[in-house]
Specification:
Blueprint (H helix, E strand, L loop, with lengths): L10 H31 L3 H27 L13 H29 L13 H24 L2 H29 L6 H28 L6 H12 L6 E10 L2 E10 L5 H18 L3 E10 L6
């Protein structure tokens, strides 16, 4: 395992994730209490649904806070590729939790939509959602920036939790205002809760899709594959590149490839060329964290 793999681990990464998680926990819990209490006082199912969405964020932040200790461990005998798949598991769990929350909110809103006596929401109910829009948009930008810098899928997933709160809170505010202005339209509050569930479900899929691709060992795109081949073939001494394989592990790609060199050159020179290929890919490739190069003698007509 080379030194480039370890750059995603270490105290800096742990501290960054923990700092984000602790602040996010405090913000989410405060907003949950505010939204839930105001939703009850203001008789708004949409706001209460929004509060439950925020509570889901709070619970997943707890998972991230403790999970970072495990996925940043250095590679060992039992885990030669490191422990980054633990982050993938945690990210998948976050996506699944969001999906269940969305289904539950949507089901409850549909079940109560046809009730004859629907309480008219009060304006006070949407104050919590307005606060959520402002705070969560700021949390999104901060968290996604740190997540990209630390190459953490869990942090980026957490960031999209914040953004999904913003998207879901906007229709909640609109629905409550409409219901407050016109008592006959009180059912709009329930419709708002259904809209929230769709936003949450969409965010869930956005989180789950890349983890599913990773778990099913999906390789890089054709465009990325072409770039990897181009970088390798651009190294002096490389006559042919074939048998390229890639796999996603946590924050980046692991590349396995065969290169062909002049059969008459020394083993030492061949090794130097393979190391040059490795260094070029780590330097120029997109999110490549480790490379294994197999050396072969060049054969005319080999593709």
């Amino acid at each position: 395992m080379n030194e480039h793999v370890s750059e995603f681990n270490g105290k800096a990464h742990i501290n960054a994730v923990r700092r984000i998680a602790v602040i996010s926990i405090a913000v989410n819990f405060s907003l949950f209490v505010l939204q839930f209490v105001l939703g009850l006082i203001g008789h708004s199912k949409a706001v209460i649904a929004d509060a439950i969405h925020t509570l889901a964020d709070f619970s997943t932040d707890i998972v991230v806070l403790f999970g970072v200790v495990f996925w940043t461990k250095s590679p060992d005998e039992d885990h030669p590729y490191g422990h980054r798949r633990i982050e993938t598991v945690i990210t998948t769990a976050i996506g699944i939790v969001l999906a269940f929350v969305a289904i539950e909110i949507g089901y409850n809103a549909l079940r109560t939509l046809g009730e004859k006596d629907i309480s008219q929401p009060r304006f006070i109910a949407c104050i919590g959602s307005l606060a959520t829009i402002l705070l969560k948009e700021g949390m999104y930008h901060w968290t996604v920036a740190v997540g990209k810098r630390q190459k953490s899928s869990a942090l980026i997933a957490s960031a999209w939790h914040h953004r999904s709160d913003v998207f879901s809170s906007i229709p909640v505010v609109i629905a409550v205002w409409i219901a407050v202005l016109n008592p006959k339209w009180a059912f709009i509050d329930h419709v708002g809760a259904i809209v929230v569930s769709f936003f949450i479900l969409r965010a869930s899929w956005g989180i789950l899709r890349p983890t599913i691709l990773e778990i099913t060992e999906t390789g890089v795109s054709k465009k990325q594959k072409k770039k990897i081949n181009s970088i390798a073939q651009g190294v002096d001494g490389v006559l042919s590149v074939h048998a390229l394989r890639t796999r996603r592990v946590g924050p980046g790609w692991y590349v396995d490839m065969h290169i062909e060199v002049d059969a008459r050159m020394s083993v030492k020179r061949g090794h130097e060329i393979s190391e040059s290929v490795k260094e070029a890919l780590l330097r120029k490739g997109e999110d490549i964290v480790d490379v294994v190069v197999h050396l072969e003698p060049f054969e005319e007509g080999h593709k």
